[in-house]
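<given_protein>
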Amino acid sequence: MAVVASAPGKVLMTGGYLVLERPNAGIVLSTNARFYAVVKPLYGEIKPESWAWAWTDVKLTSPQMSRETLYKLSLKHLTLQPTSSSDSGNPFVEHAVQYAVAAALAKFDKNKIHKLLLQGLDITILGCNEFYSYRNQIEMRGLPLTPDSLASLPPFSSITFNAEESSGQRPEVAKTGLGSSAAMTTAVVAALLHYLGAVDLSSEEKDTAKLDIVHMIAQTAHCIAQGKVGSGFDVSSAVYGSQRYVRFSPDVLSSAQGAGRGVPLEVVIADVLKANWDHERTKFSLPPSMTLLLGEPGTGGSSTPSMVGAVKKWQKSDPQKSLETWKKLSEANSTLELHLNTLSELAKLHGDSYRSVINKCSMLTAEKWAGGEDNSSQAVVSALLGARDAMLGIRYHMRKMGEAAGIPIEPESQTQLLDTTMNLEGVLLAGVPGAGGFDAVFAVTLGASSDNVIKVWSSLNVLALLVREDPNGVSLESNDPRAKEIMSAVASVKIE
């Protein structure tokens, strides 16, 4: 029986760079762009002689990249060895498989799990189109740069690679910066843990203890595959959904970093599951009647690790100045969070005046925003303007930090685009998510104003993506997403 799990991509709205260090918080929104993992047995039945086998087969398929890799998984050491000649290994999925199997064996009925493993593992990974850049295909087809053109592409389209670098490096996939590796790792871990009976993700009510196991294993696999212990906000939002996040202490992964030094993987993973995971997360999502928009400016994306490296170097070389900048950034982040939480509260307490103000403001530029006579609508406008000011402060300090570190956190081209966006009717916020650079920009719009923003972006050669906030994290799907997409495509065909 196939198990399908999915995990969402993310947008880090505040906390770029700061979220790398405790106790700084970041606000991360999960999205409707999801990564899917389909896990099923490779063989229909177990051969009689299988009890003596020391290895089992694993097949990993990525249809969008036209790749298929075969592996042998050692049942004793849980090592994965590719047996097909393809050189296109996927370290994120490989670590996810090893660690999820180790977690299942460390915690649950070994005999039952061995039986399942002896049937082999057939794993397919699929990412929604939103994770990848399809600008070139749209331009080649002569279509306008609009969300409708994106929506006309078949679901789970083939991914094109960037032109090969002259330095002879392997071509890289053009991405939109939604955290595909974290969503993919999380989906594979969740699907495997459920398939092996280690966690049951089928109940409607999400059991935090079960999600915690998915989180610990996905976080470990992702960090080890990356070769560094990152802040982990991308994996956390892939598991739990939109949230305010404070990172875990990096030393919770010290045993995993020592894996392969003679300590069995099961023991390492048992340590990881017992470690003191001290990250903090608080539920968060955008207030009602607000829409998250992402726009792809077509400048080719940025390398987050090298930008993070430059900021760390600057912190070392100028500790006093960098500390001042971080303090101001942290205050601006907290202020924005406070105003957004206030707006969510006002929407609950004074629904009618909240909706009325949002609708009015959605048709006006920010300098014309005003409330009615009553206190509640004045409070809504005051929180809206406060959130805007905080965002302008965040952008100012991020730019200053970029200048000091010698990297384009908010490059000039993005500054012009964001200023233009923030001056449009009904736009509350606009910024560069996460580490900044030339990746997608984000905007948060009020009421029905997003259509106008999409039009203006299109005229500026910016492609609005089909990404929206969806505050839900990892989930079990009822069937293969390709079948679902085909069904809905068939249903939408109107026969005259």
